[in-house]
Design goal:
globular, 301 residues, three-stranded parallel sheet
């Protein structure tokens, strides 16, 4: 991503636009065609289709605490990116592919989506928990949430509310900036030692709960399914492209009642073969080959 507070994209595109270098740009979120935000679905904002201004996401990543430069940045991006005639855009998901057709990048060469994949040799069912601390922490039945960093956009408040409504334990893996010790039904695992440990946490869960309010193409869903664990997810972003209702999990609206209904029926999902679809469609090695073909076609042109 170019918007992580570390790269001057204006200088970069001044250079790229002055050369004949062919450029492949993979979009992991929406920042490239908005005036500010990396996602607009939670705000239900369509301003990008005309021009961005008065951004409702200004205080969210990439944060701006004082000035709203969304309108200026929108036209700057439009000017810089549209001038590059050697640019190929690769979205990682179908919904973004459709949105790009009505964006400032609509005249670019937009390649068909190449989904993010996972290492299927690494992510696989593993029911033996090696870590002694985790053996003590994790009960026999639990629901799982995974995020590198927890906040309300990732559904933290919903997890806290849910913990008061269900009997099963909730295990949250990832960085937390608040004290949740008063929530007796929640176990927090700050980080895992390795991928194998994470696989065992996935494998032993009743289901992964993806309560994020906005997503591009959540790989945690793929990781969970690869470990034969079903997923209950809010109906956002790429989640809608991975989850098949009643087959490998449930898609629900951002509503605790709908979430509870799915939780109460999750045992109907047959777990034994959830991994099969991931092997067929989301093997990272196949995705690498798709990029390889794209690069070769561009070079041969």
């Amino acid at each position: 991503n170019l918007h992580g507070y570390f790269l001057n994209y204006k200088l970069l595109f001044y250079f790229l636009n002055s050369t004949k270098i062919k450029v492949v740009w993979t979009l992991h979120d929406c920042w490239a065609y908005t005036g500010h935000c990396s996602h607009y679905m939670d705000a239900n904002c369509d301003k990008r289709k005309s021009f961005c201004h008065n951004c409702p996401e200004i205080k969210y990543y990439p944060k701006s605490f004082i000035t709203d430069r969304s309108e200026k940045n929108f036209f700057l991006k439009s000017s810089l990116f549209s001038k590059n005639k050697n640019l190929t855009i690769v979205p990682i998901t179908d919904w973004m592919y459709q949105d790009l057709k009505y964006s400032i990048l609509k005249n670019a060469n937009i390649h068909k989506p190449i989904n993010n994949g996972i290492n299927i040799k690494t992510y696989k069912p593993s029911y033996k928990i090696q870590n002694q601390l985790l053996k003590k922490l994790i009960p026999r039945e639990y629901f799982l949430g995974v995020s590198s960093k927890w906040d309300n956009k990732k559904g933290l408040n919903d997890f806290l509310e849910l913990s008061e409504l269900i009997q099963e334990t909730i295990v949250l893996v990832g960085g937390l900036s608040i004290d949740i010790s008063k929530y007796k039904n929640i176990i927090h695992v700050d980080k895992t030692e390795n991928v194998q440990e994470l696989c065992s946490i996935y494998s032993n869960a009743k289901a992964l709960l993806n309560l994020s309010y906005q997503e591009t193409f959540p790989t945690i869903i793929l990781e969970s399914l690869a470990c034969n664990t079903p997923v209950i997810s809010y109906r956002v972003g790429g989640s809608k492209e991975i989850i098949r209702n009643g087959i490998n999990g449930y898609l629900v609206s951002k509503d605790l009642n709908a979430l509870l209904k799915a939780i109460n029926t999750i045992d109907k999902i047959e777990k034994s073969d959830l991994r099969k679809e991931v092997l067929n469609k989301y093997d990272s090695q196949k995705n690498f080959l798709a990029y390889n073909r794209l690069y070769k076609n561009l070079v041969n042109e």
